[in-house]
Every structure is written in structure tokens, then in C-alpha cells.
Design brief:
Layout: E1 11-13, E2 20-25, E3 34-36, E4 39-40, E5 42-43, E6 64-66, E7 73-78, E8 84-86, E9 89-90, E10 92-93
Length: about 100
């Protein structure tokens, strides 16, 4: 199976679990390998995965995952048990930005 064309807004699905993501940020000058559970992700098929059996998710719905430089950002749209990675390096949950004080 060939890798999907990666661009902002692309929806990807894991081949090893129910994880699905949307690409939020992706540098134009590189084509990274986005993987879940150690296997490359594919273009998400239509429909929603059945996530009812996910008991210990490694990817959490609604969370944003970034690389160390925060140049790649993925939004999790379906939880799963696989860990997200880019070019073999695990992604982390993006930290929330502090809101300004409203004194």
C-alpha cells in the first residue's frame, strides 16, 4: 500500500488500532513518515471506527500531538492503543497555552 499524500487537513488512520488523526501542521519542505503503533498510517477510509473496545488508549481523542520542534501537529479524532510517531520518534501531547490574566 502506498503512503497517502500528506498535507494539512489530511485524515489518517492506523493499520494496527483504531487511532485516527487529522494533520493540523506539516512543514512544506519535508515528507515525514507518520506512524501509529510502529506502522505507517494510511488515508482514513470513510466512516467511524468502533472504539468501544479501547480500554487503555495511548492516543486520546481531542488531544493534539506534536514533535519536539512543534513543526508537525496532529489532532486525534479517534482514540486507539498505538503510539503516534514521526520518522520513528514518538510524539507528545501539546501543552496548553496559558491564558492572559484578566485582572
Amino acid at each position: 500500500m502506498t503512503a497517502p499524500a500528506l498535507k494539512t487537513g489530511s485524515q489518517l488512520a492506523s493499520t494496527v488500532c483504531t487511532t485516527r488523526v487529522v494533520i493540523v501542521r506539516l512543514p512544506a519542505d519535508r515528507t515525514p513518515e507518520i506512524a501509529c503503533g510502529g506502522e505507517p498510517m494510511i488515508a482514513a477510509p470513510p466512516g467511524r471506527p468502533d472504539t468501544s473496545g479501547v480500554t487503555n488508549p495511548a492516543t486520546l481523542i481531542g488531544k493534539r500531538y506534536v514533535d519536539a520542534d512543534e513543526t508537525i501537529e496532529l489532532l486525534c479524532t479517534a482514540p486507539g492503543e498505538g503510539e503516534l510517531s514521526v520518522d520513528g520518534v514518538a510524539l507528545t501531547i501539546k501543552a496548553a497555552k496559558a491564558l492572559p490574566a484578566s485582572d
